[in-house]
Amino acid sequence: MDALLLSESNIEAVDFATYEWLDGFMNIHCDTNEGFKKVPVIWTSAERAFQIKNNKELRDERGALIYPQITIERTSVNKSNDAKGAFYNSIPDIASTYYIEKSVNHQKTKEFANSNSRQRYLQNNQYTKNAVNKNSNIVYTVKTVLRPIYIEFSYKIVLMTQYLQQMNQMIQPFLTKNGSQKYFPIKKDSRIFEGFLDSNIQQSNNADNLETEERKYSSTITLKVFGHLVGDGINQNDQIVKKKETPAKIVLPRERVILGEE
User: Angle at Cα 208 formed by Cα 207 and Cα 213, nearest 5°?
Assistant: First the structure.
């Protein structure tokens, strides 16, 4: 398991995975005045001034948004016992880590084998068919990782168009692409999160308004993503992935003089 991927399993990773799913996997297109085009996806944030300067193609000369567009915003983060994932009610400092890799440490195991051979046969690497005399002091190198915490993220996806035909074209993939199931995987590199689309799509428009304001159709889709977080991000004081060696045998010191041993 890649330690880098584990260390990057944070809130931003879930956000990026969700955005790339919407922009890349869903890949929504519709008919426009300029032909059949991809609908731009905008991550909603507070930096509106930066957005206006950096994405000038999304607005007209007056600064108004050019439709159709899709916006996505993270609305809530929920940590509850209902979203427990594979690990539940861990005991701090006892069940806060779990093993991800185990392999034989050949160098340390060889040293134990040679030490046992010298004690019995006065030489290294003495071969014997006797199972009793075979080396039982095996040293393993194990890797542990911090316990992942499962969090439920809620996102609001808003589809905005000027025409009903465009809205119909944009909504349909959300209803059909994942089949009859609400569940679908959201992938980012080697990480996989679980997505769930809400069954209800809220729609609003001002088509019945005969005044001079611009006509607009809007549909809101709620997306829930079940993701895992590992560690404290940049506030992590300890390593996320640790490597250690298992003990081959336990040796207790004893006083040979008292026991009359040489």
Answer: 60
- Whole-angstrom distance, CA of residue 44 vs CA of residue 224: 17
CATH of 3-86+147-231, one of 3.40.1190.20, 3.30.2000.40, 3.60.130.10, 3.40.309.10: 3.30.2000.40
* Rounded to 5°, angle at Cα 45 from 234 and 42: 115
Flag whether pLDDT at 145 surpasses 90: no
8 A C-beta contact, residue 144 and residue 241: yes
Q: Is the pLDDT of residue 1 over 50?
A: no
Report the Cα 110 to chain-centroid distance in Å.
39
CA distance 71 to 220: 10
Gyration radius from the chain CA atoms: 30
Interatomic CA distance for residues 171 and 72, integer angstroms: 15
pLDDT at 61: 56
Q: Please name the amino acid found at residue 102.
A: K
Q: Which amino acid is at 184?
A: F
Q: Where are the domains of the chain?
A: 3-86+147-231, 97-145+241-259
User: What's the CA gap between 154 and 150, in Å, rounded?
Assistant: 13
Q: What is the pLDDT of residue 205?
A: 85
Q: Which residues does 177 contact at the CB level (< 8 Å), separation at least 6?
A: 26
* Contact predicate 39/29, CB 8 Å: yes
Q: Answer yes or no: is pLDDT of 188 > 60.
A: yes
